[in-house]
């Protein structure tokens, strides 16, 4: 029976239903009486405007609840799918991060390698300078405080240029000719320092 059925349709449906479930027509069915009573109550409810209005309200409320539940189920389903998609993307990112270093990690490793090479080179220079100082010390006597400085062939060096070059050293005297100069300094240690200075300024 349609929800919008009028009184005539309700009466016709009642007569048709009562023929099927009336106890007199179904003596072998022990539930026939209960079915007939239920059919009669349904007919009385549908023919009573107040009871029918209340029934319509209940039906409408149930439909709205069903629609809400279906919408909520769709929302929950969508939320679950989005959550699964995020978890899957996160897993892929984690796997990628585990497999390949990031740009910042690569850059950091390169910087560490460069710093290590610089430190190693500086240590080599310090060691080389110390060895040179030891070699020079082995050839100098305690009283020897003279340094001989030579320059490339064809280059003319003046006394003024030499004095500018050794500013900061305790130079007592300078003898200059066309090929070299002999500088007399205050001590053996000062001579060593001057030799190292000249080597670095080559």
From TrEMBL:
<keyword id="KW-0963">Cytoplasm</keyword>
<dbReference type="GO" id="GO:0005737">
    <property type="term" value="C:cytoplasm"/>
</dbReference>
<keyword id="KW-0143">Chaperone</keyword>
<feature type="region of interest" description="Disordered">
    <location>
        <begin position="1"/>
        <end position="40"/>
    </location>
</feature>
<dbReference type="GO" id="GO:0005681">
    <property type="term" value="C:spliceosomal complex"/>
</dbReference>
<keyword id="KW-0539">Nucleus</keyword>
<dbReference type="InterPro" id="IPR036869">
    <property type="entry name" value="J_dom_sf"/>
</dbReference>
<dbReference type="GO" id="GO:0000390">
    <property type="term" value="P:spliceosomal complex disassembly"/>
</dbReference>
<protein>
    <recommendedName>
        <fullName>J domain-containing protein</fullName>
    </recommendedName>
</protein>
<feature type="compositionally biased region" description="Basic and acidic residues">
    <location>
        <begin position="68"/>
        <end position="91"/>
    </location>
</feature>
<dbReference type="InterPro" id="IPR052094">
    <property type="entry name" value="Pre-mRNA-splicing_ERAD"/>
</dbReference>
<feature type="domain" description="J">
    <location>
        <begin position="1"/>
        <end position="59"/>
    </location>
</feature>
<dbReference type="InterPro" id="IPR001623">
    <property type="entry name" value="DnaJ_domain"/>
</dbReference>
<feature type="compositionally biased region" description="Basic and acidic residues">
    <location>
        <begin position="21"/>
        <end position="40"/>
    </location>
</feature>
<feature type="region of interest" description="Disordered">
    <location>
        <begin position="68"/>
        <end position="109"/>
    </location>
</feature>
<dbReference type="Pfam" id="PF00226">
    <property type="entry name" value="DnaJ"/>
</dbReference>
């Amino acid at each position: 029976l349609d929800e919008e059925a009028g009184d005539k349709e309700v009466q016709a449906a009642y007569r048709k239903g009562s023929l099927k479930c009336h106890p007199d027509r179904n003596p072998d069915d022990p539930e026939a009486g209960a079915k007939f009573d239920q059919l009669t109550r349904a007919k009385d409810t549908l023919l009573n405007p107040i009871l029918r209005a209340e029934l319509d309200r209940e039906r409408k409320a149930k439909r709205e609840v069903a629609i809400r539940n279906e919408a909520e189920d769709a929302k929950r389903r969508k939320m679950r799918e989005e959550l699964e998609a995020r978890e899957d993307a996160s897993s892929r990112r984690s796997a990628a991060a585990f497999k390949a270093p990031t740009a910042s990690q690569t850059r950091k490793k390169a910087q560490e390698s460069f710093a290590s090479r610089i430190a190693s080179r500086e240590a080599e220079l310090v060691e080389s300078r110390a060895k040179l100082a030891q070699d020079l010390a082995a050839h100098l006597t305690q009283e020897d405080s003279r340094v001989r400085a030579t320059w490339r062939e064809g280059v003319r060096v003046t006394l003024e240029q030499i004095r500018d070059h050794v500013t900061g050293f305790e130079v007592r005297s300078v003898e200059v000719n066309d090929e070299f100069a002999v500088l007399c300094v205050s001590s053996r240690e000062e001579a060593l320092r001057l030799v190292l200075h000249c080597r670095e300024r080559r």
